[in-house]
Amino acid sequence: MEQMFIYVVPLLGIIGLIVMAIKSSWVTKQETGDANMVELAGHIAKGAMAFLKAEWKILGYFVVIAAIILGWSGTLVETSSPIIAISFIIGAVLSAFAGYLGMNIATKANVRTTQAAKTSLKNALNVSFNGGSVMGLGVAGLAVLGMGSLFIVFYNMFVLSTGGDVNGKAMETALEVLAGFSLGAESIALFARVGGGIYTKAADVGADLVGKVEAGIPEDDVRNPATIADNVGDNVGDVAGMGADLFGSYVATILASMVLGREIVSADNFGGIAPVLLPLVIAGLGLMFSIVGTFFVKIANDSSSVQAALNRGNWISILLTVAASYPLIMYMLPDGELVLSRGGSIAFTKMGVFGAVVIGLIVGALMSMITEYYTSMGKKPVNSIIKQSSTGHATNIIGGLSVGMESTVAPILVLAAGIYSSFLVAGLYGVAIAAAGMMATTAMQLAIDAFGPIADNAGGIAEMSGLPKEVRERTDILDAVGNTTAATGKGFAIASAALTALALFAAYVGIAGIDSIDIYKADVLAGLFVGAMIPFIFSSLAIAAVGRAAMDMVNEVRRQFREIPGIMEYKAKPEYEKCVEISTKASIREMVAPGAIALLAPMIVGFAFGPEVLGGLLAGITVSGVLMGIFQNNAGGAWDNAKKSFEKGVEINGKMEYKGSDAHKASVTGDTVGDPFKDTSGPSMNILIKLTSIVALVIAPHISDHSGHSHANAEKVEVKKEITYEDGKKIEKIEKIVIKN
Fold first, then answer.
1. Are 716 and 741 in contact (CB under 8 A)?
2. Over the chain, what is the mean pLDDT?
3. Phi, psi at residue 298, to the nearest 5°?
4. Of 626, 631, 278, 279, which Cα lies nearest the Cα of 442?
5. What is the 3-state secondary structure (H, E, C) of 453-478?
6. Distance CA 386, CA 659 (A)
7. DSSP 408
8. Subunit arrangement (predicted)?
9. Three-state SS for 200?
10. What CA–CA distance (Å, rounded) separates 533 from 493?
């Protein structure tokens, strides 16, 4: 029975995909509305697919070239294999497919949500959330199926068939090859997230600056040439990009836990692989309980709280996962002490491992709650930005920046407490398992996150179709909640990235053959500083790309208003496809440089300066990237909901301010600044953190101190200082000892 338990994991992934297919079929069968609504939705779907095809074409070349290099590198060291190239390709393909699944259903659910909003908020939530849950279940199902199946293959190939040691080089090789899957997933995720983010924000900023600010027409007005590109951007950035992002995060977290689990000698009933197998099983159970949680996201009527319904489904999935983890861990792990020899050699028990899972889920929940506080309408941070909008654009910007910076304090303290407490209960393995516990309910987290862009698109279609006011009011309620859930989802992703990066870091140190990262050494400290700089230049490139693409979009929208007579009078249709083309070309062109930094920086530093300096680089990227990600995500989310608050009216100094007022115009400026923060550079930080760590993990056997071809001719110089006393005088004798490797 225990030997067959390994096959449960891919089976759980298949169940998740079956439920996803059922929900997808239900969404597709819902009413689509009138011919005009269908035509607008068709433009959005066509634009989104055009972007994906253009992106996939470029990424196809990258995947082939990278796979060839990986395959060759797999022949150079004992603990790798050319099969890592196949693993990489599978990870890249599934990551891209995960994004496609989400985008495909989102472009179908948007118009159906609009139609449902004609009847009630309850029906609109039902359609939009089920559309989001298709994406969540698809991403988690593919990840569990892919990781579980490949682990079975590599475990049989490299360990069982050779009679290898499950704690030795045989299992190390299996997991090194499996790391190729994670590298492929994270590589595609980075380009999808950055490219999609540039696309959506170029269109959004262009549409806002000319449409709302200059022409004075509503958001998503059919007369705005950039409005279709803007709605396409919601899908390619917040749906396809987010899908690939969370797929990569999910896989990286499981991988980090498995790599550390290999170093634990376990006298269990699973052939000694229980610590390696456990993260996979937790992920599969989390997927099952996320399915259960989706059935509790319902509201009774239009006055019910949508946020409360989403929170209810989320908490049910979390609590069920905690409850199931206890008997699972008690069953899988052996009695007595377990030890991961590195990182302080802390001995722990299976109760400590369960404690780490609980800690991870608590950290994830707290991060979501803190992010919700800093980005939600009606809360003090957003209200402070609203108030400062009354004195102009500059004070609005100042208010948003200060909220974003302040919002880093509580999450970092929660993360620090989570890292330290999970380490105390189960060592470095506990930190990794905490991350795995946090990511266990990814399907539910992603469903909650993906419903927002669907609702946003639904509102856009309602506006462009000229539907009654109450329809747009219902979609606006969903959209406002979606802004908050998007921010909480990004906060959740950053938190998971921090824990996962630490686990990957620990795994890297072991494979690289180094005992510690000593920042007292000048070269390591230099690497730390360079690493801390990388998230800044990465963000700069991403934000500047949005600025350049937005300028092209602004010029195109102005040209159409100027040269096509009758647009403002509804007598002529704008050339939507021209704006879609601008965003597509700009995003594909501009995503290359940030992606190259993430992939090349660890390779250059690792091969040029060695494993310890690379460790310093990773530490710098992780700390700086987490802070930058939290700051940008929360500032952007707070600016966005401050702007949206004016649509219902806000009281500032005893006076009601509405859409179109000077204070509202200042809030639009803040929202425009925050757009690339929260949708381009901010959410890319978590991928940057994990991708650089995974690249380091993959190249670790090639640069390790015991690899046999790295630092082969290096000389180690030790300085021995001896102090003696002669006739009461202090004499220092310095002796240099040269040791050749």
1. yes
2. 85
3. -145, 155
4. 279
5. HHHHHHHHHHHHHCCCHHHHHHHHHH
6. 12
7. T
8. Homodimer.
9. helix
10. 21
CA distance 575 to 570: 13
Q: How wide is the angle at C-alpha 318 spanned by C-alphas 93 and 304, nearest 5°?
A: 100
What does the block give as tokens for 385?
Answer: 């930005």
Tokens of 706: 């015991």
Rounded Cα gap, residues 494 and 133, in angstroms? 21
CA distances from 37 to 30, 42, 225, 414, 457 (A): 14, 9, 17, 45, 11
Identify the burial level of 410 via C-beta atoms within 10 angstroms of its C-beta, where 0-12 means exposed, 13-18 middle and 19 or more buried.
middle
Residues whose CB is less than 8 angstroms from the CB of residue 537 and which lie 6 or more positions away in sequence, other chains included:
597
Longest C-alpha distance within the chain, in Å? 105
Residue 199 pLDDT > 90: no
Distance of CA 458 to the CA centre of its chain: 24
Contact 498, 622 (CB under 8 A): yes
CB atoms within 10 A of CB 237: 29
Give the whole-number percent of the chain exceeding pLDDT 90. Answer: 33
Beta-carbon count within 10 A of 662 CB = 13
Classify the phi-psi angles of 610: left when phi > 0, otherwise alpha if psi is within -120 to 50, otherwise beta. Answer: left
What is the spatial distance between Cα 223 and Cα 210, in angstroms, rounded to a whole number? 11
Q: Once rounded to an integer, what is the mean pLDDT over residues 339-354?
A: 77
Q: Please give the Cα distance from 397 to 82 (Å, whole number).
A: 52
Q: Which residues pair with 652 in a beta bridge?
A: 655
CA distances from 696 to 433, 434, 536, 617 (A): 21, 22, 20, 10
Instruction: State how far the alpha carbon of 61 is from the alpha carbons of 65, 68, 188, 694, in Å.
Output: 6, 11, 12, 21
The percent of the chain in helix, strand and coil, each rounded to the nearest 5, is 75, 5, 20
Closest CA to 634 of 389, 401, 438, 446: 401
The 3-class secondary structure across 106-156, one letter per residue, is HHHHHHHHHHHHCCCHHHHHHHHHHHHHHHHHHHHHHHHHHHHHHHHHHHH
Whole-angstrom distance, CA of residue 607 vs CA of residue 591: 25
Location of structure tokens 């929202």: 671
- Report CA-CA distances (Å) from 726 to 196, 720, 733: 74, 19, 12
Query: Which residues on adjacent β-strands are paired with residue 731?
Result: 724
Contacts of 131 (CB under 8 A, 6+ apart): 27, 105, 106, 108, 109, 110, 112, 113, 450, 451, 454
Residue 205 pLDDT greater than 80, yes or no: no
pLDDT over 70 percentage in the chain: 93
Residues 6+ away with beta carbon under 8 Å from 7: 152
Looking up tokens 């500083």 gives 529
Say which residue, 103 or 397, is predicted with more confidence: 397
What does pTM read for this prediction?
0.83
Specify the DSSP class assigned to residue 565.
Answer: T
Say if CB 549 and CB 586 are below 8 A apart: yes
Q: Residue 32 and residue 11: Cα distance in Å, rounded?
A: 34
Q: Give residues with Cβ within 8 angstroms of 192, minimum separation 6.
A: 55, 95, 96, 99, 240, 241, 244, 245
Placement of tokens 């602004």 in the chain: 554
> Which pair of tokens denotes residue 506?
């620990």
- Residue 478: name the closest of 735, 306, 317, 308 by CA: 306
Q: How far apart are CA 358 and CA 250, in angstroms?
A: 17
pLDDT at 29: 92
Pair of tokens at residue 692: 């650089």
User: Is the CB of residue 252 less than 8 Å from the CB of residue 504?
Assistant: yes
Handedness of CA 604, 609, 610, 613 (dihedral sign): negative
Could you report the per-residue pLDDT of 442-484, keeping only the tens digit for each? 899 889 888 888 888 888 888 888 888 888 888 888 887 887 7
Q: Is 440 in contact with 282 (CB distance < 8 Å)?
A: yes
CA 394, 397, 403, 408 torsion: positive or negative?
negative
Specify the amino acid at residue 133.
Answer: S
- Separation between Cα atoms, residue 406 and residue 630, nearest integer Å: 10
Distance CA 587, CA 549 (A): 8
Query: Are the C-beta atoms of residues 22 and 291 closer than 8 Å to each other?
Result: no
